[in-house]
Design a protein that fits this description.
Layout lengths: L2 H10 L16 H9 L5 H15 L6 H25 L2
Helix pairs in contact: 1-4, 3-4
């Protein structure tokens, strides 16, 4: 399991299945990595990407506050990972 996948499973998990399906969010790992690789990316870009997945793809309309908290925590962890990897590559 890569770091992005771990973060999505532990922090985000909007449909609450990561305990039984650890590959449920794998299809989002590559796009998130691409977003992070863009030098112009800001944390809000990640936030909007995850929000769009929840609303447009998953059609989630319940537990708005809980999902907001999880999304915010996920973005924070992904951004820390991004900064950490950027420092290691320079």
């Amino acid at each position: 399991m890569n770091e992005v996948q771990k973060i999505l499973n532990r922090e985000w998990d909007p449909i609450e299945v990561a305990d039984v399906l650890d590959d449920e969010y794998d299809c989002y790992c590559a796009p998130i990595t691409q977003i992070l690789d863009n030098i112009h990316t800001q944390p809000d870009d990640l936030f909007k990407y995850l929000e769009n997945i929840e609303i447009e793809q998953m059609k989630l309309t319940h537990q708005v506050e809980q999902r907001l908290t999880h999304r915010t925590n996920t973005v924070e962890k992904l951004w820390k990972l991004h900064i950490s990897l950027s420092k290691n590559n320079h």
